[in-house]
Amino acid sequence: MFRQLHADGFDTAILWMLAANPTRFFYEGLGGAVVGRRVDRMSSTEVEEVAFAWRDLEAPLIRRKLAPEQEEG
User: Is residue 45 part of a domain?
Assistant: First the structure.
């Protein structure tokens, strides 16, 4: 996602997700900063959401390159 946004000329991104979603730690690991919280309604249930922002889309790409490559197979 970051690579494509950067290739398309964008330099920032914001991603909203459910605050209780355990995969939010993945986005924190990519350098996402919490920039907002809100309560939204899904059907008849209120859910808390959190926004992660990247102000420099090159940062997650560089961070990814530092991770060891995994062998396919």
Answer: yes
In a domain, 67, yes or no: no
List the domain range (segments joined by +) for residue 19: 2-61
Coil, strand, or helix at residue 4? helix
Question: Does 73 fall in a domain?
Answer: no
pTM: 0.70
Return d(Cα 40, Cα 38) in angstroms, integer.
6
- Residue 62 is encoded by which pair of tokens? 């560089």
CATH number for 51: 3.40.630.30
Express each pLDDT in 28-58 by its tens digit. 888 889 999 999 998 899 999 999 999 887 7
For residue 1, is pLDDT > 90?
no
